[in-house]
Amino acid sequence: GPTTQHSQQSMGFQGMREDGTVGQVNSSEELLVKLILPLPPESLDVGDSVIVPVEIPYKITRIDIQTVVPVYGNIILTLIEYLDVDGQICAHIAGDINISDMQTTDDLIGEYEFSMTGTSESLFSLNTSAFVFARVDLVYSMYSSETMEGIEYDEDGNLMPDTLNMDLYAEQSFRIESSD
Fold this sequence. Notes:
- It is a single chain.
- It is built from 1 helix and 6 strands; from the N terminus they run αββββββ.
- With 180 residues, the protein is mainly β.
- It is 6% helix and 53% strand.
- It starts with 26 loop residues before the first helix and ends with a strand.
- Strands 1-2-3-4-5-6 form a 6-stranded antiparallel beta sheet.
């Protein structure tokens, strides 16, 4: 777990509000900030948790169609404890990420699945209102099976298979630490 060997320097996002939202950014930047630097939208007592709803736009691109479907989920943030880090009072926050409720429509041909799960841990200084440490570990899983009915050739004139399948699994870790 976190120790008190972090330096006094800290980092914050320009314009970060108390509830963790950031002004003047697009939704993917705000999502990244929400995942990497999660702040509860409300004050918590030690041991308390809050559920932060999240929506990710997932782009589906076929030869004949391009659409964006929402994937819903949430981040459960828990205030573990308050720590003294080099004289700063820091909130130790743990996060549990699960974003996997894809909302496809009936007119979308094929099967599609998307899942993003993971955990996060951060130390947020109450003195400077900035993060002194943050870590997030994510696992992505994507699957699609598309019937190519009615599409005999691709854009380059190549013969298309009856079905296109894609299965993707990826892990990603972010770690932010202030340095001396």
